[in-house]
Design a protein that fits this description.
Bound molecules: zinc ion
Oligomer: single chain
Helix content: 55-70%
Shape: flat
Structural class: mainly alpha
Largest sheet: none
Number of domains: 2
Distance between the termini: 71 Å
Number of strands: 0
Mean pLDDT: 82
Low-confidence stretches: 211-215, 225-229
Number of helices: 13
Radius of gyration: 26 Å
Strand content: under 5%
Length: 286
């Protein structure tokens, strides 16, 4: 599959991470590759000496893969075992070693699998802070300023949840209230509900306790695990992810409205130009 000449690999394809990693290695390789299909599990029907060299090598590599998989399972590293990825997350403070140990990876995995594709993409980008906010739009050359469309402050992924503009805080309060009702309807334990709402308060206002310089979603996942929520905990994970997504949607609606700070600045500059031309009077006109 990795050798197939397909222009675009979809994240929904089987073994997407593995296949895309192999394709990347092939594209960087200076060697010319000639793929050859080999049937698997031939050792069930053939003796080793009856196999071709290719079939023997396939059997050998498969055995090494199974052995490596067992090793990862034994060390609880089967999920996201890539050491480079962990190193990167640690360096960028996406996931601290403490959070890594505390996060309910299985619960998050269950939640992720049943999310709509758009939400999956969004949370993956939000997780590392690399998403379409002012900070990255400037880095990508799409905007000249990283100003928040609501309030004009520097905007990164955390600011979307922490923006002090009236429309943003109203939306936040509305979403948190909806989440509180959602937890009541599912008879969530009072102490768990209180802890989650306290954490959300800390996410929105970094001066409050319980906030660290890591992604709010990571914090939520961490608390989630420590509190050992019910078997419907993955649904709570989805609600928390959706809360962040709705704040992002609200931010985007401001970006494309007349309430946009950058748009207001452009209007002001254009109005000043018109007024200065008007003040010059008609004398110089042909
Ligand atoms: Zn703002």
């Amino acid at each position: 599959m990795a050798f197939e000449d397909r222009p675009l690999l979809s994240p929904t394809d089987m073994q997407f991470d593995l296949v895309s990693a192999i394709q990347e290695d092939i594209s960087r390789s200076l060697v010319s590759w000639s793929p050859q299909h080999v049937y698997g599990h031939l050792d069930k029907t053939l003796l080793l000496e009856e196999m071709t060299w290719w079939e023997q090598k396939n059997l050998e590599v498969n055995g090494l893969a199974v052995e490596f998989c067992r090793e990862l399972k034994a060390n609880h590293q089967l999920i996201a075992p890539n050491p480079c990825l962990w190193g990167r997350w640690r360096e960028k403070q996406v996931v601290s070693p403490e959070a890594k140990a505390a996060i309910a990876w299985d619960t998050l995995g269950r939640a992720m699998r049943s999310l709509p594709t758009g939400l999956k993409s969004w949370i993956t980008k939000h997780w590392v802070g690399m998403c379409g906010t002012g900070k990255f739009k400037v880095l990508w050359g799409l905007e000249k300023t990283a100003a928040c469309p609501h309030c004009g402050s520097f905007e990164d992924h955390l600011h979307v949840l922490q923006c002090c503009a009236v429309s943003a805080t109203q939306e936040w309060e509305r979403r948190v209230s909806a989440l509180s009702t959602w937890m009541d309807m599912r008879l969530t334990d009072h102490s768990i509900k209180k802890a989650i709402l306290m954490l959300l308060g800390g996410v929105c206002d970094p001066t409050l306790p319980s906030t660290q310089a890591i992604s709010p979603v990571v914090q939520l996942a961490s608390w989630h695990n420590r509190l050992s929520v019910t078997k419907a905990s993955w649904k709570l994970s989805q609600e928390l992810i959706a809360l962040g997504f709705y704040m992002r949607e609200q931010r985007n609606s401001a970006q494309h409205s007349d309430d946009n700070v950058q748009l207001r600045e452009r209007h002001r500059t254009a109005n000043e130009g018109i007024h200065s031309q008007f003040d010059m009077g008609p004398d110089d006109l042909p």
